[in-house]
Amino acid sequence: MKIVVTGSLGNISRPLAEALVGQGHAVTVVSSDDGKRGPIEKLGATAAIGSISDVGFLTETFKGADAVYAMIPLSFTEPDLAEYLRRMAQNYAQALKSAGTKRVVLMSGWAADLVKAENAEHYFDGLKASLTIMRPGSFYTNFYQSMDLIKGKGFIGKFLTFRYSGIWALLTGKTGVLMGNCGGDDRIVFVSPKDIADAVAEELVLMPKEKTIRYVGSEEMTCNQAAKIIGTAVGKPWLKWVLLSDKEMLNGLKMAKVPEKLAETLVEMQAAMHSGKTLENFHCNQPKMGKTKLSEFAKEFATAYHATQH
């Protein structure tokens, strides 16, 4: 099959491209960075260098493809996340329609149907294509975005530098905490990008007649259990994940100079997880869990953590 993978060589797209090439598919990887051309070709794939904001580029890239994996990278330079997601989703939908793509696998999020700004899924409903929407849980790799915070860096006033994972960290002596308006004993489904890539690879070669939604997870646990696993791996077994109120989280984001609309969206996303509605939806769909445990990822995280401990 001829398969187009968007997302450059990111946490999901790289292992996905590797898997597809290994299965004998003709793979094209889309990246906005010309510097990725060499690494993409080294994988045995073809590089398509351009922006997903360019409908013409996307259309030409999708022409002749049997299947497309579509993802919209989150941007935190955009003051209005909802408008950005809407614009990128419309670009994809127009290009896929013009190219006549028959199979589309769309990356979304497990709170997409609960958070207005994050739900760009419906822009793909009008496609005359077999569509599967992937709704993964909270990425293991989000912890990388909080590495400096876990080390006790990045203070802004009484709050700390914002990271996409929604995790705030504070270390004072031997006291370590992660903070968010989802935390403490809230139960979360965490997921390895490798397990997501495996699931996407499975879906791309299928052709369901109706739109399908697939939830993806690797391990379910409380936020505090996750904090302990990560903390133990880096030599800080006392690490805790403290639950903040929505108001406290919003004020912290504003103090960190996150644009107001974006801050409100991020608080809403975590509030959906805190409410338990995301977990309820996940259980209702009864997905098969991936094979990568958080303890395995924690070893990789610890290696990176200690490599920058200077």
From TrEMBL:
Transmembrane segments: none annotated. InterPro entries: Ergot_Alk_Oxidoreductase, NAD(P)-bd_dom, NAD(P)-bd_dom_sf. Pfam families: NAD_binding_10. It comes from the Bacteria. Residues 7-116 form the NAD(P)-binding domain. Gene3D superfamilies: NAD(P)-binding Rossmann-like Domain, UDP-galactose 4-epimerase, domain 1. This is NAD-dependent dehydratase.
